[in-house]
Write a structure and sequence with these properties.
By secondary structure, the protein is of the alpha/beta class. It has two domains: 242 residues, Malonyl-Coenzyme A Acyl Carrier Protein, domain 2 (3-Layer(aba) Sandwich), CATH 3.40.366.10; 58 residues, Alpha-Beta Plaits (2-Layer Sandwich). Helix content is 44%, strand content 14%. It contains 13 helices and ten strands. It has a six-stranded mixed β-sheet with strand order 8-7-2-1-9-10, with helices on both faces. Strands 4-5-3-6 form a four-stranded antiparallel β-sheet.
Amino acid sequence: MSNPIVFMYSGQGAQYFQMGKQLFETDQTFQNWFRRCDAIVSPLIGVSLVDLIYSEPTDKYAIFQRTLHTHPAIVSFSYSMTKCVIERGVLPDMLLGYSLGEYISSIIAGAMSLEDGLTMIVNQAKALEAKTEGAGMIAILENPRIMKQRPELFSGTWLAGHNFANHFVVTGRRPALEKIDETLRNERITTQILPISHGFHSPMVEPIEEDCRAIGNLNPLQTPVISALNTGPLQAINGDHIYNVIRNPVRFYETVQIMESKGSYNYIDLGPAGTLSTFVKYALDKNSKSQALPCVNQFGRDQVSMNNMLKAIDHA
């Protein structure tokens, strides 16, 4: 019997200009669904996602980070990618989301319609931009215990997520993150300031708590959803969960470890960068029978990546 299939959805920081461009240009399913998402989103944000993502940027080094744009862009991308993979005969046994990816899982699982989900996500982005101060996040290739070992360096910051044993993310104001970045780079510890403009997974998002909780109860889940916030299956999605997803740390590493203690899986990353498949590969035990597979990556060979994933599933 083949391993259960887990569709994974990444969050903020996975986005980039031109993401999935080859698929958009050559795969009718992806393009049709992305355009359908764009038709919902563009009147709400005042710009076309197609124009925003797939037009050549005037500055090739421009950072794609405004939450009003990246929130719906990531969701639209992953939703369209899901339709592509399902059309190719790969169906999920369960869904696993990371931060914003939990909202995508909720839409795919039927807790919200596509239109209601995209509208909620845009409204959240608007609330973040209107009610919270600018901030950022930094990824660090080290064990998160360094935060307790060096409290002076991490003062005024918060643990945002633990991705695998020696990889975690910190939220804070820009000056604090820049200090961490410079200090750790001088110590030859790899860091990366992420293209994120708000303080997710920290008290900095508390001004929008009421906006999130007001959503209330959503539809029953039609596909099992594993939460990287709660490290286990969700029974239902409601406004409390919508808020907690962006307020509290992402426990991705712990979630994968718990899943692995129960069996083996085919983890399929439907995000634009293959980020979660990388996290899973580093989180798996060397004797694990699981495999982690990206559908696309940042290098533009989208059809090759998709075909490699399909072949791996066929031979699993």
